[in-house]
Design brief:
The chain is of the alpha+beta class. The chain is about 40% helix and about 20% strand. The chain is built from 9 helices and 7 strands, in the order ααααββββαβαβαβαα. Bound molecules: guanosine-5'-triphosphate.
Length: about 240
């Protein structure tokens, strides 16, 4: 029997057989857009393609397991590992690369609030771009609104953190991405972010230092120019221990 689609009238698509990742890369290149590990590429993924991407990652992951000389046919524990890992990357831990930003409900600042507001600690779950090891920590966000600042729901800060951190990141760039996003959404007079995290690439492997954490911050607007405001924010963050 012929393998060709005969009576159905189907014609082979010109890009049939092209891996979906290649198609997505071509769109990104045509739009001159980056696809670094910590970039969101959702607008270049067409409906249904995420499932195909998952299949593609599964096949490549199976190759990794084969090269690690793991008998995934004989070993009941690793039989479905390639699929599990693909799902974990695409649908869970790196989801922030592949999905649109969370919808953010914005309210006008009717009461013209202009006092410092702090949200935190919010949980950070990410992974480092270098080894794809977990990065687990906390984040505090300080906002100095003005009369034009949009008020966004408290839970939305956690959703934005989740979206940005759900990508392979380095901590220095992650806080800047988050700051840019919150500035864009709320247009405050000032924004301060402090992040503290444990990097498993430093504890589970490598130097195997269990207690070392990374602490960093980004200050924008009034937090940069007003040391009193900056001190107030830092003093209001509860003891990190
Ligand atoms: N600046 C910065 N470095 C990070 C972050 N996460 C992980 N790293 C570091 O990135 C570095 C990667 O360095 P490489 O020398 O290429 O990797 P490696 O040979 O596996 O290094 P070791 O981890 O020292 O074994 C390591 O020193 C990590 O500790 C981060 O968020 N920011």
């Amino acid at each position: 029997m012929s393998d060709l689609p005969a009576a159905t009238g189907q014609r082979a698509m010109p890009d049939e057989g092209t891996p979906v990742s290649v198609k997505i890369r071509e769109r990104l290149a045509a739009a001159r857009r980056r696809c670094h590990a910590n970039d969101n590429i959702a607008e270049f993924i067409e409906p249904g393609e995420l499932e195909l991407l998952l299949d593609e990652v599964q096949a490549k992951m199976q190759g990794v397991l084969d090269s690690l000389v793991i008998d995934t046919d004989g070993d009941h524990n690793t039989r479905d590992t390639a699929r599990r890992v693909a799902k974990m990357y695409v649908n869970e831990v790196f989801k922030g690369r592949y999905v649109q930003p969370p919808p953010i409900t914005e309210f006008p600042n009717a009461e013209r609030l202009n006092e410092l507001m702090i949200v935190g600690p919010l949980t950070v779950r990410s992974a480092c771009s270098h080894h794809f090891c977990p990065v687990i920590g906390k984040i505090w966000i300080g906002i100095l609104p003005n009369e034009h600042t949009n008020v966004i729901g408290l839970s939305k800060y956690a959703r934005l953190v989740d979206w940005v951190m759900g990508r392979p990141q380095i901590q220095e760039e992650a806080v800047v991405q988050l700051a840019d996003l919150i500035m864009e959404k709320t247009q405050p007079d000032g924004l301060a972010i402090v992040m503290e995290a444990s990097h498993f690439c430093m504890s589970w492997r490598g130097v195997r230092e269990m207690d070392g954490k990374m602490l960093n911050s980004v200050m924008r607007g009034a937090f940069l120019t007003d040391p009193t405001l900056r001190r107030e924010f830092l003093s209001l963050i509860p003891s990190r221990n």
